[in-house]
């Protein structure tokens, strides 16, 4: 019997945009090969598979078309919204390969919002070799970098290279040698390369390269957003901070992610909405 596959776009900007995710709410009994095949057939950057547990909780696994991913923010948001539409708002707890992920859902101004609390988020300065390989893949010189935001490798369930640019125009010209960056990311075990330009201290334009997922770019990346929150905390931004990330505009899929850094917690909260999409719609938004 074929599983019931739901399709949502998460981190939408109002009623448009967002990042497509597949959601299978009852994956009980499925094995890895089956999940990988379904993720490949759907073609989205990730599909979430939920395994109901005897205690009423859910275990989540995430698959790109190429491999399993330890944590995926936008697919977590999509799963939470799908559950909430059937059972109403409230707290949810997901057991993932990256650890426990708590999600709170609520209705605000007629929209369902989901807020995930990430695994512990942190970052460290990128090495000269890591930064050099990244710049070479994008064809950039060091003068494109924003000195206020040093390059780091962030973590919030997955590792992400984080690079700040001085000019939005450079971000608009985002392009890279796919094979070269994919090889570098595989070597360093990065999930995305998170490139951003600051609009202000609380609003950023971001783009994410995602070769490990088999796509050139992701239009909304919750896991990278959480890592970015940990990065801002590490480099000395205020600890009680909420920032807005604008992603996907350059792809024609505008997305909005709210990132909250909470005092006294190593985790980061990432909030967004989601909308149902039909089979065949919005497919392969981040295609290679």
Automatic annotation (TrEMBL):
InterPro entries in the cross-refs: Phenazine_PhzF-like
Entries under Pfam families matching the protein: PhzC-PhzF
Keywords linked to the UniProt accession: Isomerase
Superkingdom classification of source: Bacteria
GO molecular function: isomerase activity
Entry keyword Isomerase: yes
PANTHER family in UniProt: BIOSYNTHESIS PROTEIN, PUTATIVE-RELATED (PTHR13774:SF39), PHENAZINE BIOSYNTHESIS PROTEIN (PTHR13774)
NCBIfam families: PhzF_family
Similarity-based family: Belongs to the PhzF family.
Protein name as it appears in the record: PhzF family phenazine biosynthesis isomerase
């Amino acid at each position: 019997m074929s599983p019931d596959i739901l399709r949502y776009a998460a981190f939408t900007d109002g009623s448009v945009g967002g990042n497509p995710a597949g959601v299978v709410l009852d994956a009980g009994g499925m094995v890895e090969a089956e999940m990988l095949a379904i993720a490949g057939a759907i073609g989205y950057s990730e599909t979430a598979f939920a395994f109901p547990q005897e205690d009423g909780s859910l275990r989540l696994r995430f698959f790109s078309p190429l491999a399993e991913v330890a944590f995926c923010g936008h697919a977590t948001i999509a799963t939470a919204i799908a559950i909430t539409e059937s059972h109403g708002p409230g707290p949810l707890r997901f057991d993932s390969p990256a650890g426990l992920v708590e999600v709170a859902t609520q209705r605000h101004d007629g929209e369902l919002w989901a807020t995930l609390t990430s695994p512990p988020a942190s970052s460290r300065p990128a090495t000269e070799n890591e930064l050099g390989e990244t710049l070479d893949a994008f064809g950039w010189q060091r003068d494109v970098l924003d000195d206020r935001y040093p390059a780091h490798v962030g973590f919030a369930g997955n590792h992400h290279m984080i690079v700040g640019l001085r000019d939005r125009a450079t971000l608009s010209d985002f392009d890279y040698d796919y094979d070269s960056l994919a090889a570098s990311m595989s070597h360093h075990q990065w999930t995305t390369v998170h490139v951003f330009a600051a609009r202000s201290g609380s609003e950023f334009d971001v783009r994410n390269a995602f070769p490990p997922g088999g796509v050139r770019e992701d239009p909304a990346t919750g896991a990278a957003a959480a890592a970015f929150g940990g990065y801002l905390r590490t480099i000395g931004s205020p600890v009680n901070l909420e920032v807005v990330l604008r992603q996907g505009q350059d792809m024609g899929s505008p997305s909005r992610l709210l990132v909250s850094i909470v005092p006294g917690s190593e985790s980061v909260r990432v909030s967004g909405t989601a909308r149902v999409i039909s089979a065949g719609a919005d497919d392969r938004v981040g295609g290679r």
